[in-house]
User: What shape does this take?
Amino acid sequence: MRPSDRTQGATLIVSLLFVMLILAVIMSVTAQVTLATRRSSVDQDAILRAQFAAESGAARVQARLRVMGNLLGSASLPPDGAQVLSDLAALCGLSSLPTAADGATLCTLNPTTGLNSAGGGVNSRVALLVNAVGQQAFEDAGIAAATPRSAAASGPTCSPARRASP
Assistant: This one.
């Protein structure tokens, strides 16, 4: 049996087309896997960045809480209480505290007012802490220019400037 001249190269061409089709499918699958891997690595990078940012923020909060805990641990209020009452009145926005029955509300604090809302000097929200903690404790904590009112001749000062933390 002899193939005719017309069909002699047809089997070779069909075989080559079939092999090319198989190769195209393999290349398409490989390209899809490569793209999926690239997307996955970009997503993984974003996840790691978010995790590192969250851990860094948590570490900063822990460090600040540790500093504040140390400052509060060294705090002591004056025995006469006059300065404390004056600071509490300033915190409430009053010139002096009214007399009140047990359990009565003397004033309501605005929760949206931040610690840095004072135009100058010591904010009334932190005046109790500034007066109760000694200058050396602030310096040891790396907080510069926090001067308690009782030691300040020209008035209260509390600067937000801080030394660089390690």
Q: What stands out?
A: Residues 61 and 166 are 14 Å apart (CA to CA).
